[in-house]
Structures are given as C-alpha cells and as structure tokens.
Design a protein that fits this description.
Number of domains of chain B: 2
Number of strands of chain A: 10
Largest sheet of chain B: none
Structural class of chain A: alpha/beta
CATH superfamily of chain A: P-loop containing nucleotide triphosphate hydrolases
Largest interface: A-B, 37 and 36 residues
Helix content of chain A: 25-40%
Number of helices of chain A: 10
Number of strands of chain B: 0
Oligomer: heterodimer
Structural class of chain B: mainly alpha
Largest sheet of chain A: 6 strands, mixed
Strand order of the largest sheet of chain A: 6-7-8-3-9-10
Strand content of chain A: 15-25%
Strand content of chain B: under 5%
Order of helices and strands of chain B: HHHHHHHHHHHHHHHHHHHHHHHHHH
Number of domains of chain A: 1
Radius of gyration of chain A: 19 Å
Shape of chain A: globular
Distance between the termini of chain A: 46 Å
Shape of chain B: globular
Order of helices and strands of chain A: EEEHEEHEHHHEHEHEEHHH
CATH topology of chain A: Rossmann fold
Helix content of chain B: over 70%
CATH architecture of chain A: 3-Layer(aba) Sandwich
Number of helices of chain B: 26
Chain lengths: ~250, ~525
C-alpha cells in the first residue's frame, strides 16, 4: 500500500505539490488525474524515491521511504511517461541489466518475460534501444517492470505511444495484477480509462488534491450534477468555460 | 535559397544552449575546418611537391609528373574516406533526424531539407576534403597558371563526391540502422583524423630523395590512380588547367545532382527497418553497472579515438626520442583532457536516462563512483605502455609509475564532482564539460604529474648517475637535492590521496543531483 502525509515539493518559488495526503490500499487501481502541470509526475517521482520531497512522509508497503529507500525500490516498479532508457544498449542487454541490478531469479524472470514479449508483440529486443520508436521504448520499459512482478506499480501515462492492441493488453494485465493483491498507481489523461479501470480516483490541480474517492463519491461533489468523469473533471479543474472559449475561436 | 538559409538558421538555433560565440561559429564551421586542416597540409604540400614536379616515364604514365601521381593517390584515398564517412552521416542527420518529420510538414521543398541536412553532415564528415582544399592553388602556383580552372575543377569534384555520397546514402539507408549509421560515420571520421596525424607527422621531415624512392615502390599503382576513367584523374587534369578535366567533372556532377534531386523528391526520409531479426539472446550480467559502462565505452566511436590518440600520439611524436619521460609527460597531458571527457561521456548516458537510474535499488552515488573505474583502468593501462621505455631505461622508475591509477582516479572523481556541482548542461554536446573546467583539470593534472614524474624521474636518473641538467646542478647541495627529489613527489602523492578522499565524500553526498 501507499501512504503519503503532507507531501510537499517546492521548486524555487513554485509550489509544485502542496500538502497532499494519500492512502491507497493493496489491490487498488488508483487513478491520479489532473491538467498539464498540475503536479502528477512530481507526485509519482516523490512516491517512487526519484525526487526528494521538500516535506512530508511517504510509506510504501509499510516501509518509510526515507528510511529504507533501497528496499522500497526493490519491491516497486515505475514506468515514466517519457521512456528514457540506455540508448547504447540492445533490448536484450537492458533486460539482462535489469535482472542483474534487481538480483532477480534469471530463469523465472526470462520465462515470464517471454510471455510478456509475446503478448505485447515485442520482437525487436536484439536491436539498439536508440533505434526504437517511442512506442517500442514504452513497451520495453513496461515489460522490464512487469517481468519483476513488483508489489506496487506506478505508471505515468502508460498508454501513451502504445498501439490499440498493446493498450488493451496492458489494461487487462493491470486488472489481473490488482486481482493478485498488488497495487497500481496510475496517471492518465484518458478519462475513459480512469472511469473504467480505477477503483478510486484522485484529482490534483495546481499542486493540491482537490477531490478523491470512487466515481460514485466524486459525482456527489458535482454542483452541476455532472455524470461523466470528463464533465466532473472539467468542473473541478475549472474547465467549464470551454464551450465559451471554443465559441470565441 | 532563402528557404535553405532559414532552415539552416533554425537548425543551428536548435542545436542547444550554446553561447553567442558558438552559435556564430556554427555556420562557418566547415570554413574553420578548412583552415585548421587545409593550411598545414597546404604548407606541407607546398614544401614537398615542387621538387617532384618532374616527368619520370619509368614510374608515372605519359603526360603526368611524379607530383600528379602522388597527388592522385592522396586524392583517391581521401575521396574514399570522404565517401565512407559522409554517406552514413547523411543517413544519421537526414534520414533519421528527429526534426525531419516536422520539417516535412512545413511548406518547404524536400530538396531544401536535404540540402540543409547534407550541409550539417558535411561539417563533421567533410574533413578529408579539407585536407586537399589548398591543392588547386598550389598547382596553379607551381605550374604558374591561372587558378580559375583548378579551383573550379576542385569545387566540381567536391560536388561530385557529395552527389555520389548522397546517392550511396539513399541505398545504404535501406540496410543500416540509425545507430549503425552514426557509429559507421564517426569511426571513419576518427580514422581520418588518425590518418592525418600518422601521415603528416613523420612525412613533414621528408625530402625529395625520400619521396622519389617511396614513389618507385608505388610504380604499378600510378597506372591505376591516373587512369583516364577516374574522376580523380579529371581533377588532376583540371588542376593542371586542362578544360577537358573540368568539363567531365562538371558534366558528371551535374548529372548526378539532377539524379539526386529527382530521387530526393520521392524519398520518404526514413531508414527502413531491417526485416530479418537476429535470434534473441540473453547473457548474464555480472557487475551490471560496470558492464553497462563497458558496452557504452566500446560502442561510442569517440572513445576509440580518445584511447587510440592517447596511445599513438605520444609514440608518434617521440619516435626516436631519447627521453622516455617526455613520452610519459605527453601521455599524461593528453589523459588530463581525455579522462575527464570519457568520464563525462559515461555520466551523460545516465543523465540522458533520468530518472531511470534513480529507480534502481541502489544508492545513486554508487553508480556515479563506478563511472571513474573505466577511465582510470583504460588510461592507467595506456600510461603503463607509455612508461615501458622509462622503466627499461631505469627500473627504479616503477615506484613512480604505480601512482598513475591514483592520479587518473582522482581526476575522474574531480570531473564527476564538477559535473554534479553544475548539473544543468547541454547534453546534446559531444563534450559537456566547459572549456574552463577542462583547462582547470588539465592544469592540475600537469602540475601534479610534473611533481611526481618529472621531478621524481629526474631525481632517480641523477641518483643513477645520468647527466640531468636541472637536478645535477642541485646535487652539489645534497639537502636541497634530496628534499626536492623526494619531497615534491611525496607532497603530490599526499595531495592526490587527500583530493581522492575529498571528491569521494562530495560525490557520495551529491549522488541525488544526477537527475536534477
């Protein structure tokens, strides 16, 4: 599970994330939504130990992140929106590197990887990562995380760059992962995905968590009686004036 | 034409956060290379070519002088290198440039995109052509003719080479990957630089007699290199003021350019992916961080150059030198630049992958400290090879040689410390270190290594009775002599140990800054 208390990140004079509290249970798919620049990626980076918070506490799987960061990193997996990998390595070498650095059981990992690569149509691991397209890199980043069977998976816009088939497989796989009691923390701009897949949704705007709960709970927050997540999201994040803006264009 | 200039202007602007000077210099870089490579070779050619402007029918075909034969060979070799380096570079800068899809969406002609990318590739890969840029003028001076026809012939010869390279790149693009093209182009580029060094340095002392003797060995080759069907022979004819040479070059280059233009219209500007895939093979990684660095090290062509140059340059420069310490100091001076460059290269691959390195279950400072291992090992090995003459001459020198790993380790850590101190850098540059940082590290390296190797080496030699000017004089003052001979190297070694500890401590505390 994921727990964050008064999480705050300040860059110079800009407050990117302001006093966020999160409590996500095992087996949940938590959708983290927000407009561009709202603080989603900054929050993911703090929760995964890749960015130090200015203040606040984080616990992952009951382990305080600041006390035992290495242990947490062993048990979680993170796929960022921009799949920046080692471009000078071949796909196979990157997988070998991941197996070695996480000290994974080689046989078991490669056996599961073989299933994942088949499912995601990955037949290019012999090539250099520098030669891959964005989608190919994204799929490699995904399988390199999923093959480790992490207990908590953080996904930042996981379907960006994926073809329809791979996106569908990923969605089904995520549901399977949570059915095994593992946790998913996911950001997405595709509200339909969040609506269908997430057990709970958090909406962040200008660094503050402005709403949180199941879709049903979020609907209750609507002052205009919005039914769809899209309308609700726009209402909460100040997008109601969209129609007027488009009209003026 | 204005379209090409506009694209070129924004290509340069897009190249990174370089200062005003580097932005101003970018468009004139080819001309700068012309000066850097062309002027010394021109001066060298002007010195050695006039005496061989002689007819020797037994060696060179009728109608040509020995000078023509030698120049034809040089032109053929350099043309070949130009062609080998330029074609893959076009693939890299044109066919797989990330900006090309955007450029294709703009209302600009495809030939303009092609021309700008070709120019961009020419900056790096055109070096072999700059070597001989002065040849038409030298021919005009030696033969006392107007330079117009020779210069025009040379221009059309280069146009011809560019056209052939472009055509070849179109074919090659179907078979190579982006990485393969980049690597191929860079390897040829560095081979060309080596060739320059290897040919230019020992030949600069060549006289006419040596050259004639050398030419006699190449007798058979001149019949091939001066074949009337070769464009290089047309260039020789053109440089001799012969209009037929100019005409053939003009005709063929125009024909190939029209062909290239026509083909470029239908090009999709993408490298075709290879259909056939190799069998996927996984190999266990032991010491994953080091192995990853090693794979980068052996795959980045610039590293091949850094290592090759560091080893060969001191050896070539001091061939026949009686002072083995001069070779050693030269090696250290070069390592003073190249250890930081290699370390920075290894650091850059982590920076470019951020925040991935921070997701691994390990302390980031551990990954950073690993970056110092490969440069230290590589350059210590080179130093060991370069120190063989010194050790053979004086075995006691070995007590100085053993400090090389510490010197390079400390230098590598210093580089990492500087990189972490100012983490926001333009990662698109080949060398992300600033000039002042390079100079600072070079100064410290030369200063410390001089205290250890120059003073220590002279001290040992003097003790063993060799005639050394500086310390021999001091040997008349035994206290000063021993104090300096032992004291300075010892102080330098203590400084190295302290600096190593200081930088290690700093890097351990600054590890998180790798992905700032």
């Amino acid at each position: 599970m994921i727990r964050a208390r008064n999480l705050k990140k300040v860059f110079g004079s800009i407050v990117a994330v302001n006093s966020i509290n999160l409590e996500i249970k095992n087996g949940e798919i938590y959708g983290f939504l927000g407009p561009n620049g709202a603080g989603k990626t900054t929050t993911i980076r703090m929760l995964t130990g890749t960015l130090k918070p200015t203040s606040g506490e984080i616990e992952i799987l009951g382990i305080p992140l600041d006390k035992n960061e290495i242990e947490v990193k062993k048990r979680i997996g993170v796929v960022f929106e921009e799949p920046k990998l080692y471009e000078n390595l071949r796909g196979t070498e990157f997988i070998d590197f991941i197996i070695a650095i996480y000290k994974l059981d080689r046989e078991k990992t490669l056996a599961y990887l073989s299933e994942l690569t088949e499912a995601f149509n990955i037949d290019y691991l012999d090539g250099f990562i520098g030669d891959y397209s964005h989608g190919m890199k994204q799929k490699l980043a995904l399988v390199s995380v999923l093959m480790r069977r992490p207990e908590v998976v953080f996904l930042d816009e996981p379907t960006v760059g994926l073809d329809a088939r791979s996106a569908k497989i990923l969605k089904m796989l995520l549901e399977k992962i949570t059915s095994e009691g593992r946790t998913i923390f996911m950001t997405t701009h595709i509200l339909e995905i969040a609506e269908k897949m997430c057990s709970r949704i958090g909406i962040i705007n200008r660094g503050e968590l402005i709403a949180e709960g199941t879709l049903k709970e979020l609907r209750k927050l609507s002052k205009t009686g919005s039914k769809s997540l899209e309308d609700l999201f726009l209402e909460l994040t100040g997008g109601e004036e969209i129609a007027e803006i488009v009209e003026a264009l | 034409m204005s379209e090409i200039f506009l694209l070129l202007k924004y290509t340069i602007k897009n190249r990174g956060k370089g200062g005003k000077i580097s932005k101003f210099l970018s468009p004139i870089l080819p001309f700068f290379f012309m000066l850097v490579f062309g002027v010394p070779v021109g001066a060298f050619a002007y010195k050695i070519l006039p005496p061989v402007n002689i007819y020797i029918p037994a060696i060179v075909p009728d109608g040509y002088t020995l000078m023509d034969g030698i120049v034809s060979l040089i032109i053929i070799i350099l043309s070949f290198l130009f062609f080998l380096g330029y074609s893959p570079m076009i693939i890299f800068t044109l066919f797989e440039n990330d900006n090309v899809p955007f450029l294709l969406s703009l209302p600009v002609k495809r030939i303009s995109i092609f021309a700008v990318s070709s120019y961009d590739a020419l900056v790096t890969a055109g070096v072999p052509a700059w070597y001989v840029v002065s040849f038409p003028i030298i021919y005009a001076i030696i033969l006392k003719i107007s330079p117009v026809v020779p210069v025009l012939s040379f221009i059309f010869y280069i146009v011809l080479l560019i056209a052939i390279s472009n055509l070849f790149a179109m074919v090659l693009s179907r078979y190579v990957s982006r990485t393969g093209a980049k690597r191929g182009g860079m390897i040829v580029y560095f081979i060309t630089l080596f060739l320059y060094l290897i040919i230019y340095t020992p030949l600069s002392s060549t006289n006419k007699q040596n050259l004639v003797e050398f030419a006699q060995k190449l007798k058979g080759l001149f019949n091939i290199s001066l074949s009337p069907f070769l464009p290089s022979t047309w260039l020789i004819n053109g440089m001799k003021g012969n209009f037929s040479g100019l005409f053939y070059l003009l005709a063929l280059s125009l024909f190939l350019y029209v062909l290239t233009y026509q083909l470029s219209k239908g090009m999709d500007f993408y490298v075709e992916k290879r259909g056939e895939r190799k069998k996927v093979r996984f190999t266990p990684f032991s010491m994953p961080l080091l192995r990853k660095d090693w794979l980068y090290f052996k795959r980045e062509p610039m590293n091949l150059y850094l290592v090759g140059f560091s080893l060969l340059f001191p050896l070539i420069m001091f061939t026949g030198s009686r002072d083995p310490f001069a070779i050693l100091i030269m090696g250290v001076a070069i390592a003073g630049m190249y250890v930081p460059m290699l370390t920075a290269g290894l650091y850059t691959i982590e920076r470019k992958s951020c925040p991935l390195p921070l997701t691994f279950p390990q302390n980031p400072s551990g990954a950073l400290l690993t970056k110092a291992i490969l440069p230290t090992f590589t350059f210590s090995l080179i130093a060991l090879i370069l120190s063989i003459p010194a050790v053979v001459k004086e075995p006691l020198t070995i007590i100085l040689i053993v400090w090389f790993p510490l010197l390079y380790y400390s230098l590598s850590l210093f580089t990492l410390y500087l990189l972490l101190s100012r983490p926001s850098r333009d990662l698109t540059k080949k060398n992300i270190l600033a000039l002042w940082e390079m100079l600072l590290m070079e100064f410290i390296t030369v200063m410390i290594s001089s205290m250890i190797y120059l003073v220590g080496g002279l001290y040992i030699s003097t003790l063993k009775g060799s005639e050394q000017k500086l310390l021999h004089l001091m040997s008349k003052h035994p206290v000063l002599f021993h104090a300096l001979g032992i004291g300075l190297p010892t102080i330098a070694i203590i400084m190295l140990v302290l600096l190593t500890g200081f930088f290690r401590g700093k890097i351990k505390r600054m590890g998180d800054r790798i992905c700032v």
